[in-house]
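Researcher: Please predict.
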Amino acid sequence: SALSWHHDGATICTMAVALSTAGEQFEGGELQVRDREGDMELLHTVEDLRRGDVVTWRGWDLHRVRPLRSGRRQVVVAEWWLGPNCSETDERPRDSEEVTRKVLQVDSTSTQLHVILGEELSEKG
């Protein structure tokens, strides 16, 4: 019922569509997204999702879902990314150096994207 801090790699945009309403079908389960503005780290918390609400964020931003206290939180999550195609039977492939460099053209100041690129380069050796 919870997801710890993570990122969606070099995903351009991640979107979550709420299928249930906070305070009615569930308690807790807040979405939190970390962001930076200059030297300041920001924490955005979405705690009042209603059925039909859509939340989007840059996939490389660290985010998590807090534990549920009661009920059932239902969402549909989709990612838009520049990597190879996948299907219902194929798992999303890992990001590549090429894909991460393309996404860095969208946000060249992202520390997280530079960390992802560094990890990919160090895996290559």
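Model: The beta strands are 3-6, 11-18, 26-28, 31-37, 40-46, 54-57, 63-65, 68-71, 75-81.
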